[in-house]
Amino acid sequence: MNIEAIARANAPERPAEAAPSLADFHAFRIHGCFSVKRRSSSLNCVLQGLNARGLFLKTSIRPEVGDEIDAVFEQIGRLQGSTEEITDEGVFVAMPPALMKGLLDQVIWLQTSETQRRHLRIHPREPQTSIKLNGTHTAHPATLVNFSLSGASLKSDVTVQLGDKVTFHNFTEGKVVWAAEGGCFGVEFLRPFRPTEFSWSTRL
């Protein structure tokens, strides 16, 4: 046995790297949607934290380690990475380090800027709704991600374009003001709700 082999045999074992914990991340709570490359459907998720290595997501359905993730968040855009760890707290998605520094700065700015939201956004008790586009009579199923007095974020399989007119199940009307891959888009109401009309139990 040569010297290198003896050294390796006598070297202390390196402790296994601890699984990521939410405590290791800059905490946020930004709702969006994600899809897994091997699946066709998109699912709700919550961006719970960021660090120099990647994203920490809360998802209703857990992907598998190694899955390629395509996530979309309002005002952040599209993020792609691979699932590296799955814990009881959520899913860690590894991202290129060069991207994470700028992304972290962007999200911190969004979270602290008082001008980013005209109104508080809440998450509805009844997220399922339907929408009609541009005055047509065809109703398309949609999921409310969140909404406020002035607008809503949704997810649907129907394709929308900026400026499309949207009519909700309860006849609330709006227009599409942003759209991203994965079926997520934002609608600005043509007539904002009054505070007395608005609560987490409001249905669209």
UniProtKB/TrEMBL annotation:
<dbReference type="GO" id="GO:0035438">
    <property type="term" value="F:cyclic-di-GMP binding"/>
</dbReference>
<protein>
    <submittedName>
        <fullName>PilZ domain-containing protein</fullName>
    </submittedName>
</protein>
<dbReference type="InterPro" id="IPR009875">
    <property type="entry name" value="PilZ_domain"/>
</dbReference>
<dbReference type="Pfam" id="PF07238">
    <property type="entry name" value="PilZ"/>
</dbReference>
<feature type="domain" description="PilZ">
    <location>
        <begin position="116"/>
        <end position="191"/>
    </location>
</feature>
